[in-house]
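During the reporting period the student researcher (J.K.) took over the structure-prediction task from the postdoctoral fellow and processed the backlog of single-chain submissions. One of the processed entries is reproduced below for the supervisory committee.
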Amino acid sequence: MREELVTPATARRLAQVGLQWDTQPGDWVTALGGAHMDEGLVGIWLVVAISPDGQQLTLADATGRWPQSRGVVRDCLWLPSAGKLKVWLRGRGYRVATGEVTARLLGGEGPMTRHVCRLTRDDGAAPVDGEGVNEAEAVASAALQALGAGTADAGFW
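J.K. obtained the following C-alpha cells:
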C-alpha cells in the first residue's frame, strides 16, 4: 500500500527550495511530460530500479494500468513521504512531533480532522508549526516554514 505522500504541488515547492533527492527503489515520483502521466493517481509511479549510472529509472504505475516504464531522473519529481521528510529533518537537528486535531469550521456540517507538525531544536529557536490534509503535507508545511524563517540550514535544501 502506498504511503501518505506530499502532493505534486508541495513536491515542486520543496524542489524549488533545493530539497535533494537521493534516488532509492521504493520512492514515489510523478513523471513530468509523459503522454499517459499526469498529477492524478495514474501519474504516480514507484521507483523499482535505478540504472548503474543513476540516471535512468524503472517505474511501476501505482494503479497497475500501465506496464513498467523507463524514465530519466531529471524528468521525475520526487513525492516524499512523511517518514522520508522526518528523517531528513532529524538529520539536521530537528525534533519532529506530529498529530491530528479536530476542528469545526464555520459553515461546515461537521468536524474536520487536520494533521499538525511541530519542529523544535535544542538551540532554543522558536518552534515551527505546520498543518496539512495528511501527515506528509503537515511535515512539509513545517519544513517550508522553517526554511522561510531562516531556521534551517538552507544549504541542504
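The committee noted the following: The beta strands are 28-31, 44-50, 56-61, 69-72, 76-78, 95-104, 111-120, 128-132.
J.K. will present the remaining backlog at the next meeting.
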